[in-house]
Design a protein that fits this description.
This protein has two domains: 23-143, no CATH class; 149-458, Methylamine Dehydrogenase, Chain H. Helix content is 15%, strand content 42%. The strands form nine sheets. Strands 1, 2, 3, 4 and 36 form a five-stranded antiparallel sheet that branches.
């Protein structure tokens, strides 16, 4: 009998089998409470990022985050399940010696244990920088840290980022007279060549959920038709759709439900697939009663789907929403509104829809819109231009888009992301495509004297163990 078996046998005789089982379960319980505490820190980090966007400064006290989370949710988040402290996290606004310079990676949130900061606890670090404001005596303004994701080419894009900070998209490269796309993922400081793992001639990733499931499109050599796919940890699934000459997936939620399009005979229909299933078999989401075309671009955790399609063949595109089996026109624009095509690109769990509307007079001139049932339609100023508009919204109702690259929130309104970078960053941001709940943003822009656009990742806080 080995030493461990002897100890277990002795404990069983002296304490009983039930007590020994509880001891065996203790390490699992400890890991679970650690995970829960990290989740609370991530929520506080998200609230802190949101507060900064809403106000332009750090809060003086942590309880000011009640404005973001609400009183009850804030109180629940402040309880530390690992240590049992009711006030389980301490806040330190960045300290500056000259009103500007903060220590690199300065701790702003840390776990509490028995009423004191726990030196072994998890913590959140401020990885951005601070800048002067135009108003004398005003607090310095936080700025994002920008990470270069490398050259992505004229037609490349960083499309999405999940709540684990994994960003996805495609690099466009010239091949003879054509441009080809190669899918990539950025994760934990490294760029991963997903294209090589997929094994097709071309590939693009449009979205990624928190489980790391990615969705997009792949193409065979010399083929103009694409095939929608889902991929996770080396396992590829492609859409099996009888008679379709083109399929792609644009969005996925954390339940693994993905949406996109399937094209047959020149007509597109919005589709949904369950990426958890052994095979990707699309469900046709239909079109408007008199329409002939539809596209699904986003899906939230409640299963509400958004997209676009015409009310009649050949007519302007309308914003669509699926809250049941068939699409309806989203109540964003009225029939009499003097607009061209309208497109819904994303929806969050609060029902906030974002997208763009086009001008009847200028075909490529698109403007941003934000809509929620109790807000009505809001049009952020300067959120438009050539193929511009709003592209993404997180669950704290922060919206990103272009032109120029912007972030928007109700109350403060639109802020140019360029103004939230250090002055000497060397970047000129062209567009912002997605924002996660932690406030991280991805997009593309011009970096220094580089001839091709580069992808970027904006970050203000990081969780450290």
């Amino acid at each position: 009998m080995n030493r461990t078996s002897i100890i277990v046998a002795w404990l069983t005789m002296t304490m009983g089998a039930t007590a020994v089982q509880k001891l065996d379960a203790a390490p699992d319980r400890n890991e679970e409470t650690k995970r829960q505490s990290r989740g609370n820190l991530r929520m506080l980090m998200a609230a802190l990022s949101t507060y900064i966007v809403q106000t332009g400064v750090f809060p003086d006290r942590l309880d000011e985050l009640q404005e973001v989370l609400g009183k009850d949710r804030f109180a629940e988040t402040m309880r530390n399940p690992r240590t049992g402290d009711a006030v389980g996290y301490s806040y330190r606004p960045p300290k500056t010696s000259d009103g500007l310079k903060a220590q690199e990676g300065e701790v702003v949130l840390i776990e509490m244990k028995e009423g004191k900061e726990d030196p072994e606890g998890a913590r959140v670090r401020f990885v951005g920088s601070l800048a002067k404001t135009d108003h004398p005596g005003a607090k310095p303004a936080p700025r994002f840290r920008i990470t270069d994701l490398g050259a992505i080419g004229h037609y490349g894009c960083v499309w999405a980022i999940n709540n684990n900070g994994q960003a996805v998209g495609a690099i466009s490269e010239r091949s003879g007279n054509d441009w080809v796309e190669r899918a990539f993922m950025y994760s934990e400081g490294k760029t991963i060549d997903i294209h090589r793992k997929l094994g097709y001639a071309q590939s693009d990733i449009h979205d990624i959920n928190d489980a790391g499931v990615i969705v997009g499109i792949v193409k065979k050599p010399r083929a103009s038709n694409g095939i929608g796919f889902a991929w996770q940890e080396g396992k590829l699934k492609i859409i099996h759709s009888s008679g379709a000459h083109y399929t792609t997936l644009y969005g996925i939620n954390n339940k693994g439900m993905a949406v996109g399009i399937s094209a047959k005979g020149g007509k597109r229909h919005a589709i949904m697939v369950d990426t958890n299933a052994p095979e990707l078999k699309p469900t046709d989401l239909g079109v408007l009663p008199d329409g002939d075309d539809s596209v699904a671009t986003g899906i939230n955790e409640k299963g509400v789907i958004v997209g676009s399609g015409p009310a009649q063949p050949g007519k302007r595109t309308r914003c669509l929403v699926w809250e049941g089996d068939l699409p309806t026109i989203a109540p964003i624009f009225a029939e009499e509104d003097d607009v061209g095509n309208t497109l819904t690109r994303d929806i969050n769990d609060n029902g906030v829809m974002v997208g763009c509307w086009g001008s009847r007079q200028r075909a490529l001139d698109y403007r941003a819109f934000v809509w929620r049932k109790d807000w009505g339609r809001i049009e952020p100023p300067a959120g438009g231009g050539t193929l511009g508009g709003a592209h993404g919204v997180n669950n704290y109702d922060l919206v990103v888009g272009h032109s120029p690259a912007f972030i928007w929130c109700k109350g403060r309104g639109l802020v140019k992301l360029q103004d939230m970078l250090p002055a000497a960053s060397g970047w000129l941001l062209a567009e912002a495509r997605a924002i996660n709940d932690l406030g991280q943003i991805v997009g593309k822009g011009k970096f220094g004297n580089e001839p091709l656009p580069h992808g970027y990742l904006l970050t203000m806080f990081e969780l450290a163990e």
